[in-house]
Amino acid sequence: MRGRWPPGWPWPRSGTRGRPYGRVFLDVATTLPRSERLTQYIVTRALGAHRIAAINTAVKNGHGITYASIPHRDGPSWRVDVDLPYG
């Protein structure tokens, strides 16, 4: 293989030097998808987007929606306990 290239030319290498025997040189890229962290503000904004009159007035006035717990991970998804206003 060296005979085809001029002297001093960086001849192509197969990429096998320096790797353990029996292992591939490059592996598959693994990046996990990440979701945005759920907050009380996001939950309030999502409830206001439903256009339910009682929820919209509670969001507008700043009271009526209370949270029994902060949003937290519950397995592969999120969980939040919300106390909604009457109506």
Task: Figure out the total of helices.
Answer: 2
Outline type = rod-shaped
Query: How far is the first residue's CA from the last residue's CA?
Result: 82 Å
Order of helices and strands: HHEEEE
User: What's the count of strands?
Assistant: 4
Mean pLDDT: 78
The largest pleated sheet is described as: 2 strands, antiparallel
Please report which band the strand proportion falls in: under 5%, 5-15%, 15-25%, 25-35%, 35-45% or over 45%: 5-15%
Strand order of the largest sheet: 1-4
Q: How many domain modules?
A: 1
Low-confidence stretches: none
Which bin fits the share of residues in helices?
10-25%
Q: Which structural category fits the helices and strands? A: alpha+beta
Structure in words:
With 87 residues, the protein is α+β, with helices and mostly antiparallel strands. The protein has one domain. 21% of the residues lie in helices and 11% in strands. It contains 2 helices and 4 strands; from the N terminus they run ααββββ. The chain has helices at 40-48, 53-61, and strands at residues 66-67, 72-74, 77-79, 82-83. 1% of the residues are buried.
